[in-house]
Specification:
2 copies of one chain form a homodimer. Chain A is of the alpha+beta class. Chain A contains 2 helices and 3 strands; from the N terminus they run βαβαβ. The first copy, chain A, has a single domain, classed as Mth169, Chain: A (2-Layer Sandwich), CATH 3.30.1280.
């Protein structure tokens, strides 16, 4: 078993209403950042784990996202290997 | 004024206690992901904006992070240009 770091990025699917992003957009406008046109807030989970190889590390990441980290009805996710 | 997309990544400083990450770590362990050793949750703001040039776009991003998006006492941030 070797040490790996993976990154799981979770974001809302196209068309899903995201009140947090809208609130940040409105707050930035109020702070005079008038040139802001759109804000999206993604979540980024950095996970250190042990695995047999890179493939297994990414595979574990996909399982974690499906089971816990992402709401797959409303969100998409991407798993990436950061370091081996 | 041209369109740019910037990305602002906000993460806790080293040594700051992050209960959300700890809770996710514990939940993953309970779901039988025993090989997980550490979890960190970062925030990623994707911002579409208008600016004169790339330098101004990144500069605006730094101001937004300082004024609203990051708690600079506990968090670090990085601003990156994603697309011009």
């Amino acid at each position: 078993m070797k040490n790996f770091q993976i990154q799981i990025r979770v974001r809302f699917k196209e068309g899903i209403l995201d009140p947090q992003s809208q609130a940040i957009e409105a707050a930035l406008q109020k702070l005079q950042f008038k040139s802001v046109e759109k804000v999206a807030c993604d979540k980024l989970f950095m996970i250190d784990l042990k695995a047999e190889d890179e493939g297994q590390a990414v595979q574990l990441g996909r399982q974690m996202a499906n089971q816990l980290l992402a709401n797959v009805v409303m969100e998409n996710f991407e798993v990436e290997l950061v370091s081996a």
